[in-house]
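User: My instructor asked us to take a sequence, write out its structure as tokens, and then describe one feature of it. I'm not sure where to start. Here is the sequence I was given:
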Amino acid sequence: MTFWAGLVCLASVVAAAQNPGYQPDTSWRASEVATARQNPLASRPEAAAGGRKLFAKNCAECHGKNGSGMEKKHSANFHLPVVQEQSDGTLFWKITNGNANRGMPSFSKLPELQRWQLVLYIRQLREPE
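Assistant: Let's start with the prediction itself. The structure tokens for your sequence are:
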């Protein structure tokens, strides 16, 4: 295989690992109370560093190292506005409860503040404007 053929092959594998066309499960919705919850760590952006570590340990396997999702796993692409426009409370609720229909496990066993750290980190993954 030539260098260029190998490079094209690698690029196609990377592209296939992303989920640019991600669409949320419309039946997976947080209650109004859950949606309205505020992140108690919102004024501490440095806490996102802990969220990055938690993401690498608990989330990257399905959502990719950079949070772009995986098409074959139907996992969310955290860069997309359809995800970033959700409230912190909604993201926290989704992390906490999971979604069995899409293969998303519940992370309710993680301490609450760690789940909020994950939300902070997910916010850092938004697409550059």
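For the description part of your assignment, you could build on this observation: The CA atoms of residues 92 and 122 lie 10 Å apart. Try explaining in your own words what that tells you about the chain.
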